[in-house]
Design a protein that fits this description.
The chain is mainly β. About 0% of the residues lie in helices and about 60% in strands. The strands form two sheets. Strands 2, 4, 5, 6, 9, 10 and 11 form a seven-stranded mixed beta sheet that branches.
């Protein structure tokens, strides 16, 4: 079992920055990749950024150039640095972990609200 815990959400103005943090516990040795997804009100959850154990990184087009995903010094930590935030970034952000090819482990989410 993999448990994920996110933190770092909050309320910021347009153009502001936040850093989200995620800590994994449990069967972390089986994790192949970690990432961040988000779900805005009335919308489906979408992938924001992912990073594999090999270092392969993917970003959603909407956040490329503004967000950076990186692993912490500890293997069980992943961060999402969010800069130049826009109201469209408002969502609940979820940390995710993959075992094999599937992101099937999810945190409880942290709210990010960007005001106009």
């Amino acid at each position: 079992q993999v448990e994920l815990a996110e933190s770092g959400g909050g309320l910021v103005q347009t153009g502001g920055s936040l850093r989200l943090s995620c800590t994994a516990s449990g069967s972390i040795s089986s994790i192949n990749a970690m990432g961040w997804y988000r779900r805005a009100p009335g919308k489906q959850r979408e992938r924001v950024a992912t990073i594999t154990n090999a270092g392969n990184i993917n970003y959603a087009d909407s956040v490329k150039g503004r967000f950076t995903i990186y692993r912490g010094n500890a293997k069980n930590m992943v961060y999402l640095q969010m800069n130049s935030l826009k109201p469209d970034d408002t969502a609940v952000y979820y940390c995710a972990a993959a075992r094999g090819a599937i992101f099937g482990h999810w945190g409880q989410g942290t709210q990010v609200t960007v005001s106009s």
